Amino acid sequence: MSAEAKRNAAPLGLPIALDAMGGDYGVEPNVAGAVAAARAGVSVLLVGREPQIHAELAKHPGSSSLPLRVIDTSDVIGMEEHARDVRSRREASINVCTQLVREDRAAAVVSMGHSGAAMASALLTLGRLPGVDRPAMLTHLPAKTGFVTLLDVGANADVKAAYLAQWALLATVYLRVVEDLEEPAVGLLSIGEEDHKGSQLVLDAHALLRAMDGQGIRFYGNVEGRDIFQGTTDIVVTDGFTGNVVLKLAEGEAKVLLGWVKEALGSSLKSKAGGLLARGALKGLAERLNPSAYGASLLLGVKGLVLIGHGSSDEHAVKNSLLRAARAHESDLIERLKVALEQFGDSPASGQSE
Amino acid sequence: MSAEAKRNAAPLGLPIALDAMGGDYGVEPNVAGAVAAARAGVSVLLVGREPQIHAELAKHPGSSSLPLRVIDTSDVIGMEEHARDVRSRREASINVCTQLVREDRAAAVVSMGHSGAAMASALLTLGRLPGVDRPAMLTHLPAKTGFVTLLDVGANADVKAAYLAQWALLATVYLRVVEDLEEPAVGLLSIGEEDHKGSQLVLDAHALLRAMDGQGIRFYGNVEGRDIFQGTTDIVVTDGFTGNVVLKLAEGEAKVLLGWVKEALGSSLKSKAGGLLARGALKGLAERLNPSAYGASLLLGVKGLVLIGHGSSDEHAVKNSLLRAARAHESDLIERLKVALEQFGDSPASGQSE
User: Fold this and answer.
1) Which residue of A has its CA nearest to B194?
2) What is the ipTM, given to two decimal places?
3) How many C-beta atoms surround the C-beta of residue B222 within 10 A?
4) Euclidean distance between CA atoms A325 and A338, whole angstroms
5) Residue B35 near chain A (CB below 8 Å)
6) Is A85 on the interface with B (CB under 8 A)?
7) Is A339 an 8 Å CB contact of chain B?
8) Which of A48, A286, B292, B339 is deepest in the core (most CB within 10 A)?
9) B278 to chain A: which residues are within 8 Å by CB?
């Protein structure tokens, strides 16, 4: 980071660092989302190529009086590049973001860019919380009950049972602190409700979670694929392979199904008239199913707040992610996680798996 | 089986054996489904408690002239009992069904009962096809393109890469023979399209499948959760844990989403009028998403045709399963699988993994 960039970063207190170059659509949705978040009272550091960011900011009248600052850095890790590049390219926008958090000059990172690079940068620059073997990606899915919190949705394709136990604890603290859910129920994703059903990994994780019930978490037991949209539990914990498949299937199915509904409503003159009348109602439903509503996923288990979103995120997703990052910071999530992990230190599931 | 039962079974040629006691609703949907299938020209052996089955048949006028016979057996493995009970309870209805296939007195088994018991009975009585390490459950899901064939949906929670390679071959032959799809594309479910993404299992399976491309199968490469409803490939191969989660999530999400659509259409007087007009169109969509439309799953890799359905199957699911079983028998599926497995014998992925 240049000397000028450091000066720019300092006076804002603790703003959120936004990887302004990240995502499939570059600066445009990032800047628009930052402007919207700033109007809602959140300070944002826009990290990226200053000329491009300023040109984009100029399209938003009145943005110069908002709590927005630009941190200039010319390097960006593109969507097609390697995550390991974060090791050598210290001036890449995502590395500048995580470095700002490490130096306590930003409260959190939000990035819609290369998710592997963002995870790698967070691990490298911020490190893991004590007692955490592997950070997990946590996200929300819509459910009958409102939403369900799912993790890991892709940070770890191969896991150990102890990871799942740690993630159950982290997600419990997160929901308690950030979403005001006092005693969230934890479900372990399996292929049968009975305790003895599942893979060896799930059987081992079940035993650990059962032992933790009432001591840091509330363990409901196994849940199945059908329980996710039912909202049977507040939290669903699974490995990063299954969780990623679940997330992408859920989003993909919603998209195809809503397409079929529209098709069905337009399939006859009679139903077309019905569809026109019902259009407003369906639009509300589409919004409920839009991943943007929930913003980015949280990388849980690193020493700092890191939110990583879809490459296809629009300005609403950017804005919502910035607001959620600010809320997590205000609720002192990282400190609360540390305390919970310390109390958990005596548990058989604590970070001793490696 | 009693001597009388054996006499009853003989004269029908090769009917389908239906576990008439299986499922959450007992004989009622089984008998109704058998009657409907018989009306469509399929001979059925109803295996179970004769008095109950006859009482149920009496509710269907004209059923006495249909190609239906009853095989009396009093024992049934209930949904809450152990799958291992099939070892000791040889007169249980599912065991009588698989024994009929083993003795070439039935063309196939259809059961909506205890799925673990049905799999265990099939393995015990019929055994595996040469070259198959583990049989898999194959099912269809609705997709933009019509339907997608997914396996394994729950027979094997813990798998090896070679199993996935074998299943890709079996599913290819199945679609070619039974659904007339000449060169179905095989996708390997992963968490990224790139070859190097996924769990260690997926990376190993990817290498095996790549080597088989053009030799027995057509390998598309990795697919993600979102590709399932898109119908990117004809076949999606995965482990039985992930596949079972996918199946139950897909069904559960469809149910909840259609509920939300109905709610949205009824949420205002204006949209309610629209909803009434559109009702017929939506009903068609609900039917498309109803698992009954596809009937039971096929246990692929045993020496005989075995179809295992939802406990909650209705008479349509029973009927469709019986028709599909008859079609698979007429297309000589088992023999065609044997030939393909023999040709596959030289491949590195052939049944040498144990």
Assistant:
1) A80
2) 0.90
3) 24
4) 18
5) no
6) no
7) no
8) A48
9) 264-265, 271, 274-275, 278
